[in-house]
Amino acid sequence: MPPHIPPTPPESRADSPEDGAEPRRRGSRKSAGGITLRDVAQLAGVAPITASRALNTPSAVSPKVLQKVRDAVERTGYVPNLLAGGLASNKSRLVAVVVPTVIGPVFQEIVHTLTETLAAAGYQVMLGQSGYENSREDALLEAIIGRRPDGVVLTGIMRSAEARKRLLASGIPVVETWDLTPTPIDMLVGFSHENIGREVARYLHAAGRKVVAVVGGRDERSRRRMDSFAQESAALGMAAGADVAMHHVTAPTTLGQGRKGLADLLERQPGIDAIFCSSDLLALGVMIEAQSRGIRIPEQLAVVGFGDLEFSRDLQPQLTTVRIDGTGIGQRAARFIIDRAAGIEVAERIVDVGFSIIRRESA
Amino acid sequence: MPPHIPPTPPESRADSPEDGAEPRRRGSRKSAGGITLRDVAQLAGVAPITASRALNTPSAVSPKVLQKVRDAVERTGYVPNLLAGGLASNKSRLVAVVVPTVIGPVFQEIVHTLTETLAAAGYQVMLGQSGYENSREDALLEAIIGRRPDGVVLTGIMRSAEARKRLLASGIPVVETWDLTPTPIDMLVGFSHENIGREVARYLHAAGRKVVAVVGGRDERSRRRMDSFAQESAALGMAAGADVAMHHVTAPTTLGQGRKGLADLLERQPGIDAIFCSSDLLALGVMIEAQSRGIRIPEQLAVVGFGDLEFSRDLQPQLTTVRIDGTGIGQRAARFIIDRAAGIEVAERIVDVGFSIIRRESA
DNA sequence: TTGAAAGCGCTAACAA
DNA sequence: TTGTTAGCGCTTTCAA
After folding, report:
1. What PANTHER family does UniProt report for this protein, alphabetically (chains A, B) (predicted)?
2. How is domain A193-323 classified at the architecture level of CATH?
């Protein structure tokens, strides 16, 4: 249905469908029929650019004009076409957010925060899923670059060097998150997976644990946590340190895998008294399996998770886990992009948000 | 940094920054500096429109031209500007997906499926969060309509009638999901919350339960499930049917609320032998609380969840719950929008995907 | 099958 | 403070 502008004769629209009298010029074409800035300007009795200023930089326009334009917008129900605006201004106000998958609790907090924070600043989030396995990363990249976003937030990995190079070449501001790499593409908000593994090992050692093991996802970051955990465990002289069972499950991790993980582990290495899991869901699985076998936590078995999911504090026993401040990461990342768009260059492009071990009952 | 086109003299670019000799015409402006279709066309020795056809409708050009254009794309690393394309063609290949929040497991599956399915068809997902509480729905709507998406998928609620009206007026295809309303804005893929409440009551009645209660979120849909559960319970003569404890927690629901819910319930109504929870997370909380009180499930207390989260089958005991096919909903919704964009009109705009009660150990 | 012209709806640049 | 002009990069329309 065509839009309805209350009391204004659309007589002077150059290509208004009404003037079928004149022969159509070669190459001319009809508009989609929506209300445009031009309609608003006409109704307000100003030039289009003035209407544009009234909407985008109200301070640059007289109060009188501002009022007239706002009235016209109100009456017509005009909604600016951001595609056109983006094309003309070379600012899309769109930010691409890439996660391996939106399923699973891991990246929820960051996606939520980014969407909310950016929306408050007038940006929209375009969601991309890279998948954990090798997939068409190049197709995703093409789709992203094609939209000319004002920023890209990468959570999880951009695997191919080719993809990283193209992203860099595109000139789009990039924020990598969830890791600390020495050579980021552009900006970085993350934390050290190695440090986490090390600190958890020390924590368990200080708690007097002797035989440690891990139940971990097989994605690269999980593996790095696990490797450094194993290394530090060995260095501290914890038994089977060099022999820590790497129990690789596919990402994203599940409770069921945690149950199975503990079962397998106990079969191979009955003396285990501490387990570091690569997610809280795995940890919950370990706890349930232990419970069903009559193994007492933490007396006989200490369990440490990763992620500090919202439910972890309410488990029985409460889960000791590693907390990552996803909200903080999201806010920093958003700030990076908003600042860059505003022409503000920050001195430090790498932020380490760290982590904390939340000490509860399970370890 | 300016883009680098290997061996092609950019002599004839109208506004090339190089020709600073001529005085700048009034109103002329510099391009963003990226590689455009025009550059590709020039390199391939064809007109821009021909290059455009080679990329969008390869069958409409000769194999020779196709090859030349593809070579040129390859050499330049050209990525089409979808903002410009969208403006010209009035097709944005963007779909807005609105959920109350991306936090919490409820809408993950549908967001995941939509993102993936639509990406495969060449569409990108723009994410919007409406929030559970009354919020700036109009601002969100403005942001959505401003992008001129080829479709909007609404999950959860569009509360204000004003918002619904504007969406309708915008002419954008709309798919509402997660509910069955008699008068959808446009298209609808959902299920009946009332039926779920009723069927769960019957299920528990058939299982010989006598005193039922609910632990439920306070969002509108949860309440509808709970209300019809209460009604049917009463009709079937289950004790306290008319007196079912409505235990309203704020959405999204949490495990902790489930624990507290059971605790409160037992205080008020000790004889309860069955509980219907409005989410699996609440159900898990109820189970943990029961466990910590030595209440045996299902012998003393039957528990039914909602959502069939991935972990529910691995709990101890396995959770009986209501399954909603989020993937199916996502696929149908995507299909609706893709078809509409292709001009295919479906006869039936309302799809009821139903639900199923997954019978496991807890009830 | 290819191309010339025009224009999608908006804003940058310049001028008054 | 307001307006004129041109053009963002692409695709539609029409013609050859």
Report:
1. LACI-RELATED TRANSCRIPTIONAL REPRESSOR, TRANSCRIPTIONAL REGULATOR
2. 3-Layer(aba) Sandwich (3.40)
User: What pLDDT band is residue B162 in, cutting at 50, 70 and 90?
Assistant: confident
Residue B103 is nearest to which of A112, A145, A256, comparing CB atoms? Answer: A112
What letters, b where the CB count within 10 A reaches 16 and e where it falls short, cover A70-94? bebbebbbbbbbbbbbbbeeeebbb
Strand C, nucleotides < 7 Å from a protein CB: these are 1-15
Q: Does B60 touch chain A (CB under 8 A)?
A: no
CA of A93 to C1' of C3 (A): 35
> Identity (one letter) of the amino acid at A258?
G
Contact B311/A255, CB-based, under 8 Å? Answer: yes
Q: B 63-82 residues with CB below 8 A of A?
A: 77, 79-82
Amino acid A54 CA to nucleotide C11 C1' distance, rounded Å? 13
Alpha helices in chain A, H assignment, sequence order: 37-44, 48-56, 63-76, 82-89, 108-120, 137-146, 161-170, 193-206, 220-235, 255-268, 280-292, 326-341
Strand C-proximal residues of A, range 73-112, CB below 7 A, are 78, 80-81, 84-85, 87-89, 91
Residue A99: the pLDDT is: 94
In this complex, the answer to whether residue A49 has its CB under 7 A from any atom of chain C, a nucleic strand, is yes
- Are B296 and B220 in contact by the 8 Å Cβ rule? The answer is no
Residue of B nearest to A259 (CA): B314
Please list the residues that pair with A176 across neighbouring strands. Answer: A154, A188
Domain ranges of chain B: 13-76, 94-191+327-353, 193-323
Q: Do B173 and B186 contact (CB within 8 A), yes or no?
A: yes
Buried b (16+ CB within 10 A) or exposed e, A232-248: bbbebebbbbeebbebb
Q: What is the pLDDT of residue B301?
A: 97
Of the candidates B123, B20, B39, the one whose C-alpha atom is nearest the C-alpha of residue B79 is: B39
Q: Which residues of A touch B127 (CB under 8 A)?
A: 97, 111, 115, 124-127
pLDDT, greater one: B226 or A162: B226
The reported pLDDT for the residue numbered A312 is 97
The nucleotides of chain D lying under 7 Å from a protein CB are: 1-15
Domains A94-191+327-353 and A193-323 share a fold: yes
Q: A12: distance to nearest CA of chain B, Å?
A: 22
Interchain CB distance below 8 Å, B255 and A281: no
CATH (residue range B13-76): 1.10.260.40
Of B1, B84, B170, the CB nearest to A87: B84
Dihedral sign (CA A305, A310, A312, A313): positive
Average pLDDT (B224-236) is: 93
Q: Say how many CB pairs under 8 Å bridge A and B.
A: 153
pLDDT by 10-residue block (mean), chain A, 363 residues: 39 39 55 88 97 97 97 96 97 96 91 97 96 77 97 86 89 96 93 98 97 89 93 89 57 89 89 94 96 96 97 96 97 97 91 98 95
Confidence bin at B244 (pLDDT 50/70/90): low
What's the pLDDT at B28? 65
Segment among A8-17, A42-51, B153-162, B287-296 with least mean pLDDT: A8-17
Its pTM surpasses 0.85: yes
The CATH number that domain B94-191+327-353 falls under is 3.40.50.2300
